Amino acid sequence: MKNFVNKQWPILLVYFGILISLAVVVFVDFRSGAILLSLNVLLAFLFRLRLPDSKAGWLRIRRRRIDLTVLATLGILLFILALVVPQGSK
Q1: CB 33 within 8 A of CB 44
Q2: 3-class SS at 59?
Q3: Which among 17, 32, 25, 19 is positioned nearest to 83, based on CA atoms?
Q4: What is the pLDDT of residue 88?
């Protein structure tokens, strides 16, 4: 188990952040949770950008360029959409 965590820490950290983001969406505020979600996708982008393939673990799905393009596009679009969504009334 310890060996698994040492090899897969980047994706586990991103998963943990996504769980926190979803909890914020459900229990606090949609916009805040959506912004946190987009920041976690951008964190995955940064990990994939900075870590070598041997250390990226499960973040390495395709070639580096494709992974980076998909993660950056998704993270930026999620962030923009989170800002554009109208604030709900409480």
Answers
A1: no
A2: helix
A3: 32
A4: 67
44-64 pLDDT tens trace: 999 999 988 888 888 888 898
> In angstroms, what CA-CA distances link 67 with 58, 62, 63?
11, 6, 6
Which residues, including other chains, have CB under 8 Å from residue 68's CB and lie 6 or more apart? 45, 48, 49
CA distance 55 to 8: 8
| Torsion angle defined by CA atoms of residues 69, 72, 73 and 76, in that order, rounded to the nearest 10 degrees | -170
User: Do 37 and 70 form a contact (C-beta atoms < 8 A)?
Assistant: no
When pLDDT is averaged across residues 2-17 and rounded to a whole number, the result is: 88
pTM: 0.88
What's residue 34's pLDDT?
A: 94
Task: Write the DSSP assignment of 44-88 as a string of letters.
Answer: HHHHHHHS-HHHHGGG--S-HHHHHHHHHHHHHHHHHHHHHSPPP
Whole-number Å distance between alpha carbons of 14 and 47: 9
